[in-house]
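Box 3.1. Reading complex inputs
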Amino acid sequence: MSGEIDPEMLMAFADGELDPLAAKRVEHAIAGDAEAAATVARHRALRATLTQAFDPVTAEPVPPALLAAAKSPNVVDLAPIRNARRVSGRRWWPVGGAIAASLALGLVIGGQLGGGAPVTNRDGALIASGNLDHLLNTQLAATQDSAAAMRVRVTFRDRSGAICRTFTTPALGGIACRDGDAWLLRETRNRVATGTTEYRQAGSDDAAIMADAEAAMSGEPLDAAAEARARANGWRPQ
Amino acid sequence: MHFEDELIGLLPRLRRFARSLAFAPADADDLCQATVERALKARDQWQPGTRLDSWMYRIMRNTWIDTARASRRRGETFVAAEAGESIGDAGDRAIEARVELGKVGRAMAMLPPEQREAVALVLVEGLAYKEAAMVLEIPMGTLTSRLVRGREALMRTLEEAA
């Protein structure tokens, strides 16, 4: 019975993260499986241990220096800035179509970033160019500065074995997969166009890109070492 | 509520998150300080109406990763495992809590960073899987696999110590 219930599912059950139907299934399974029931109990006990260990920190007085830092004197009213910032509609650019749109996008974003348009059209396909191509070729997700305006988030292999990378620039996010000597853009979404921005709240577009990456992914994302090997290997498929 | 007021209200939780990541109290306080400074500089990037806590967790996590990377470059050790046991002058219960934090904190400090941050957000801060995945900018499946590995390692370490 417990053969169908993997460790992650038991953990999610212990955390109350399963939907009611899946939870019922696990409940039935562990009713006849003492080992699985014990695992659930251990997960809950660990949560209690960690809570007990770290919660007292919240009761400690906040150090004055930290409090002072949080009460920044240079308070600026940001409402006008926010209002001036137009939130552009979220749009989805199907790869293979929307070439004219992509070129327009390329011009806009290219202008913002310098280094040429990040997206070009080659034989009807959208490929990364300029700074975006450079980013995808050279930047390891594991070693980049979190303040960088253009970032690679996750590197993974799709089911065909090709290397794919999710990326974000201030205005554009998407998934690019290596195809020969180019990064083919499998998906691009425009993001709220602000200036540089290290800590833009992850929006629904980012979540959608992550979900699509996960759906396309074979196994887990590459870890730092595997990513470095893939780069050394010219991002060629396995 | 004003940004500052909300931020000040979050400080106790941010200190707890910092302690679960950085372990040594002095390092954790430095991490909090750096996080608050970054957040204030970037505050126009926070969208009102969205959760300030998730945003702050994300800044803290990134600050932690950047700091850890910088200290590795300088050849320093990432974690001072002997630290974190400075016994306060409070009553028995507080001392007990400190010792407990020492044991649990040491076990946490042995986890690889990507497992530690997943455990910290879900088990210490009480975030839902989906929220934690958003803070860490990783897919849900990656979050749950890191979380389950981190928890199994913690359970082994703590059960051996018990």
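In summary: Residues 87-232 of chain A form one domain.
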